[in-house]
UniProtKB/TrEMBL annotation:
Named cofactor requirement(s): FAD
Keywords, ordered alphabetically: FAD, Flavoprotein, Monooxygenase, Oxidoreductase
MF GO annotations: monooxygenase activity
Domain FAD-binding stretches: 3-328
Protein name: FAD-dependent monooxygenase
The keyword Manganese is annotated on this UniProt entry: no
Length: 457
């Protein structure tokens, strides 16, 4: 029997596979596609995701391939990221296909098994296992995690509802060549019907995006290069000599959130648990952060005797994060509507972002640096990457998914690192579980809740 089967080999599934293998869990990833699709809906990594990759010693290849951009946006309104409280105060522009390639290489190095062209058709649960029927035979696993996208088969087979709001507009994205491109990048140029963008990620081709509020197209209907040309002409007045598409996709601003993230031994992460309009580039990042929260908890239950109730904290912590992302992307969609009232509202918000506190609040939200999990007062927030007295950094002590005690002396059952400031207990995902002001009794409670028993071996 497999320990964990992950359905879906995108960034969320691959990140989860890496996390589980770092703890010693055997992992099988099932992916229905024969190979990497080459499609790259996402195009960037935010600061918190870079911190996560740094904690596990995985960040350098991503930095080497990406471009550092000091600005982000909220509904096309510029945000200055340069003052973010992190070692990575920028957006790292890197295409999803490159992210997947780097994560897959890391996963394979760790011993993750990846089987392609395998679809899941049936899930049955018992008290001890999940029985899986696939297009390539039957399997059984202690746990199954659906990381298989917004139309998740795992979510449907587990009987988990996916309520939300329907689309109100139509967007088209195409990676194409242009024989007469604009002089420079164009981002969310507003028009009477919506907006359009022409962006460059790599030499030789362009990313063209149109957002149209005149109607809602059928997402399942075939899409052609002529449709993209027509939409671009409608908004920009020209198609810039558009030709030779690499791929074209149609989507909308539907926003949905799984009714629950866990059904027995089946869990959901990433787009299988939440979908929204890709405003601010938060989708891929939220999925990777889901995986980072779930991985060490699932390993603690499987390998180190933690009670299964630890898995309930995954939904308790991550579902409110998704609720907030859905809310802010709905707000961003509303702020792009092509009417005089919305234009007036945009002007007001643009003026407000000139104030440091407003810019900082929106920037930290988009970059996911302000997340605080529902832990006792004084805990729950992310730990900054402290410089330590021995010349190391805190994140260097989180290379494997184990908690760290920062302080003078030590604490039974937890890896201790000398620290001259107030003592604190850091969970494997870099969030603070306890601070000195909470007292010794609260420390023991935090150790019992978050630390696997084998830490004192």
């Amino acid at each position: 029997m497999e320990q964990v089967v992950i359905v879906g080999g995108g960034p969320t599934g691959l990140m989860l596979a890496c996390e589980l293998r770092l703890s010693g869990v055997d992992v099988l990833v099932l992916e229905r596609l024969a190979g990497p699709s080459g499609e790259s809906r996402a195009g960037g990594i935010h600061a918190r995701t870079m911190e996560i990759l740094d904690m596990r010693g995985m960040l350098e290849p991503f930095l080497a391939e990406g471009r550092r951009l000091p600005r982000g946006h909220f509904a096309g309104i510029p945000l200055d990221f340069s003052g973010l409280p992190t070692r990575y105060p920028f957006l790292l522009a890197i295409l999803q296909r490159r992210i997947e390639r780097l994560l897959e290489a890391r996963a394979r190095d760790l011993g993750v098994r990846l089987r392609r062209e395998v679809g899941v058709t049936v899930l049955r649960q018992t008290a001890e296992r999940v029985e899986i029927e696939t297009t390539e035979g039957d399997l059984a696993a202690a746990y199954v995690v659906g990381c298989d996208g917004g139309r998740s088969t795992v979510r449907k087979l587990a009987g988990i509802d996916f309520p939300g709001t329907p689309g109100t507009m139509t967007a088209i994205l195409g990676d194409v060549e242009l024989s007469a491109p604009p002089e420079g990048p164009v981002f969310q140029q507003r028009t009477p019907h919506g907006n359009w963008s022409v962006l460059t990620f790599e030499s030789g081709w362009y990313r063209v995006i149109t957002n149209d509020f005149d109607g809602i197209a059928d997402r399942d209907a075939p899409i052609t290069v002529d449709e993209l040309r027509g939409s671009l002409r409608k908004h920009a007045g020209t198609d810039f000599g558009l030709h030779s598409p690499r791929w074209i996709s149609r989507y909308n601003d539907a926003a949905r959130l799984a009714a629950r993230y866990r059904s027995g031994r089946v869990l959901l992460a990433g787009d299988a648990a939440h979908i929204h309009y890709p405003a601010g580039g938060q989708g891929l990042n939220t999925g990777v952060q889901d995986a980072f929260n779930l991985g060490w908890k699932l390993a603690a239950v499987l390998l180190f005797g933690q009670d299964q109730t630890l898995l309930d904290t995954y939904e308790e912590e991550r579902r409110p994060v998704a609720e907030r992302v859905l809310a802010n992307t709905r707000a961003q969609t509303a702020l792009t509507r092509p009417d005089p009232q919305t234009e007036a509202l945009r002007q007001v918000l643009t003026g407000l972002t000139a104030f440091g506190d407003v810019n900082r609040s929106l920037s930290e939200m988009v970059a996911a640096l302000d997340i605080r999990y529902p832990l006792p007062e004084g805990a729950g927030h992310r730990a900054p990457d402290f410089d330590l007295p021995d010349g190391t950094r805190l994140y260097e002590h989180l290379r494997d998914p184990r908690p760290v005690y920062l302080g003078a002396g030590s604490s039974d059952g937890v890896r201790a690192v000398a620290w001259e400031g107030p003592a604190m207990l850091i969970r494997p995902d870099g969030h603070v579980a306890w601070v000195e002001a909470m007292g010794e009794r609260a420390l023991q409670e935090a150790i019992n809740r978050w630390c696997r028993p084998s830490f004192n071996e």
